[in-house]
Here is the input.
Amino acid sequence: MKTSRKGFLRSALAAGALSMVPGKFLGATDTIVSPNRKRSMRLAHFTDVHLQPEGAAPYGFEAALHQVQNMADKPEAIIFSGDCVMDSFSASRERTKTQWDLWNKILKDECSLPTHPLLGNHDVWGWGLLGKYKKDDNFGKQWAVEELKIPKQYYSYDLGGWHFIMLDSTTKHGPGYIAKLDNEQKDWLKEELKKTPSATPICIVSHIPIYAMCVFMDGKRIKKTDGMCPVV
Here is the structure.
């Protein structure tokens, strides 16, 4: 029997949902309610903002921030999970600065909530320009780390009784990149998980999924990139 891609994804998602609910098969209208649990916090999640000065992008970003902050039950913080600016991967210094200046101006003027950002592949500067800026101190991820005001490209923090781990899943590969955690980050992640108390819930955030279904969809290309999910 042939299965369509949509059918396969639907089945996989259903299986994933069931795996999180031991002993219960959920129907389409079922709701999981745990009356004994109290909410520890509420978060807003923004990803792939791809901010640029052209068009409606700045106004759309501002409107989204206002929507979140004007909720009757507003979140305690916002997570930005990468690709904050439109693109600095193949952009000049001037273009990259324009994008980051706009990002920080909007957050300063329009956002009163704490923010927790991480890097996306489009936030990395100069990798796509074949070494043009290779000797610049800001080449690669350093510029984005400074603009996002994070301690380094991967980090952790505690909020609302949870331990958050923010990963950097973009690794240089030739003139481009692949989705991968380098060995240094893997060792750091192991230590983070080891030292976190077993009763503390953990939320791991990365821009490019560190475990993705693309291996099932595009196996031939996977083999060409040392088992990593290729990114385009």
Summary: The radius of gyration is 20 Å.
